[in-house]
Structure formats: C-alpha cells, structure tokens
Design a protein that fits this description.
Length: 320
C-alpha cells in the first residue's frame, strides 16, 4: 500500500512539475510574442477609393513589403469623401503609425489632416497624385500623368482628321488634372479639333456614364472622348452604346486594366495610357523604410506611361 502511495505521489508531483514547466514555457512564449508585437511598426494607407483595381494593386504591393518586414499595414477607404479621409488620417496618426501613404481625394482639402500628421512627426508619402503643398510630402510616387494625357492626344491627332471632343474630368485630383492638361496642351495648334464639353466624373464608371449621356444630349454626337481613367472610359462607352455611337467615337483612358485591354483588342475602345501600379507600390514601400532610417530620397518619383492600342495590346506588360 505504501508503495502504491509513493508511486501515486510521485505521479502527482511529476504532473505538477510538468504543468509548471508548461506554464513557464507558455509565459516565455507569450512574453516573447508581446515583445515582438511591441517592435512591429504600424503603417497607414489611405486611398481616395478602393473601388478601382489600380489602388487595390498598389495596396497589395505595399502590404506585401511591409508584412515581409514583420510590420503592419492598416488601409482605409474613404469612398471619395475628403471629410472621411481626413478623419481616417487623423485616426491613424493617433493610433501611432510610423508613416502614412496617402492618395488624396482632394489635393487641397486634405491639407489639415496632412498638417496634423506633420505636427505628430509622421512622414507622408503621396501616392499617385501630389499634395497641394508638396512641402508636407516626404516623397511623391506617381505616374507621369501629363505624359499619359499627351500620348493619348498624339494618337488622336495621328489617326483623325479632327472633330468634337468631350472631356471626363476629376478636377480635385492633381493626377487627373495633369492628364487633361497633357491632352489639351498636345492639341494646341490643331484647330481641326474642338473641345465642346467637359464634365466631372470623379473617375467612377457609375458617374461617368450619366455625365457622358448629358454631354451627348446637350451637344449631340462627338468624335472623341478623353477620360481620366479606365473606369470613366468604360462609363463613356456604356453611354455611347446607349446612343448608338459605340463604333463612331475615339475613346481614351488611363490605367491599363484587364477589361479595357480586352475592349481595345476587340476594337471597342481606342487606347489607354498604361500605368505601373505594382511598381508604384514597391517603390513607395522601399522609400518608406529609407525615410524611417533617416534618409532623404528625391522628392518626386515619376514613372512613365505607355500607350496601349489594338496594335500593341499583346506587347505592353500587364498588371497581373
């Protein structure tokens, strides 16, 4: 009996010791994990909208780079509301982010939130479109938006004898304004072309379609449309189809999404100036770590755009 009691007590003691060791091991792991979490840096990213594959891909590339470094990216979508975007920027600053990637919905009215970030010592990288006051951006990473508009106009001049042109704009975004300016500057001296109508579309298909229908109702048929991005170009195409003009109008966009590639290859859409969202995201992420390390990179990184037409649709690099 005593022997059984000794064995029983030994087993109880062994189990207790095992439980203590397990608890200490778990505590050590927990402490280590907490220390790891404490050392992880938080980054914030606020885009004008995520209702566009262009921004989705930029965010995907930034996130991959940040997480590969063991850090965290918190992304926000204000759905084109500058008021909401300002709130999101300020919330991220208060949460303790080390750096912000910002794609402003409105380059001017984003300024108060950017100033709040600067006051808190949080660097800002402007994505795709610059800030109204560039002094508040550690660096701006964008496409050559002026050139994107220019090459669309050059293609139109080379392939058309002239005609009436409609513009679908997003005046609050610097990138979109530069595209329109590049397009209209390239038409200077070509009096055979006339811009007969301009409408705001915010770069959104669902806004561009009724905007284009308004133009056609008020001004009649046009010969060409310059849209500030591919979603708005697709909205223009939908409106043209409703008016029976789909095959009679040159339609230009900027982006290079899969859907417009197919439309261009089939001859429905004329051309698009292809951007490089993956490269924009990768460069922005690399620069973020350089900035946090105390470096001061060039203030402006501008990536070239390439015109995609039916003739080179299989040659121009794809996003995916």
């Amino acid at each position: 009996m005593e022997r059984h009691e000794r064995i029983f007590r030994y087993c109880i003691a062994a189990m207790a010791l095992a439980l203590i060791m397990l608890f200490l091991l778990q505590l050590a792991r927990t402490d280590y994990s907490l220390r790891q979490n404490e050392n992880r840096r938080k980054f914030g990213a606020v885009y004008m909208t995520m209702n566009n594959p262009f921004y989705e891909i930029i965010d995907e590339e930034i996130r991959a780079a940040v997480e590969n470094n063991g850090d965290v990216l918190i992304s926000r979508d204000p759905a084109l509301s500058q008021e909401r975007q300002n709130e999101e920027i300020e919330e991220l600053v208060k949460s303790g982010v080390s750096l912000l990637f910002v794609n402003p919905a409105d380059q001017k009215t984003v300024t108060p939130a950017i100033k709040a970030a600067a006051k808190a010592g949080v660097p800002v990288i402007a994505i795709d479109t610059g800030l109204y006051d560039d002094d508040y951006a550690a660096v701006t990473v964008t496409s050559d938006n002026y050139e994107a508009g220019k090459i669309c106009a050059e293609h139109l001049i080379a392939h058309s004898d002239g005609g009436k042109i409609a513009l679908l704009k997003h005046s609050a975004a610097q990138s979109a304004s530069e595209r329109i300016r590049g397009f209209t500057d390239a038409l200077t001296g070509h009096d055979e072309f006339e811009i007969v109508a301009e409408e705001e579309c915010l770069g959104q298909l669902e806004i561009a379609m009724p905007a284009m229908e308004k133009i056609l109702t008020e001004h009649g048929a046009v010969d060409a449309v310059m849209a500030i991005n591919d979603p708005s170009a697709m909205g223009a195409l939908a409106a043209l189809q409703n008016f029976g003009l789909l095959n009679d109008v040159y339609v230009y966009g900027v982006d290079g999404v899969k859907e417009t590639r197919e439309l261009i290859k089939s001859g429905v859409m004329t051309a698009t100036a292809v951007q490089q969202p993956r490269e924009i995201g990768r460069i922005a992420a690399r620069l973020a770590y350089r900035i946090l390390a105390g470096e001061k990179p060039d203030k402006l990184i501008r990536l070239p755009a390439v015109l995609l037409t039916r003739d080179n649709a299989d040659e121009v690099p794809k996003w995916d």
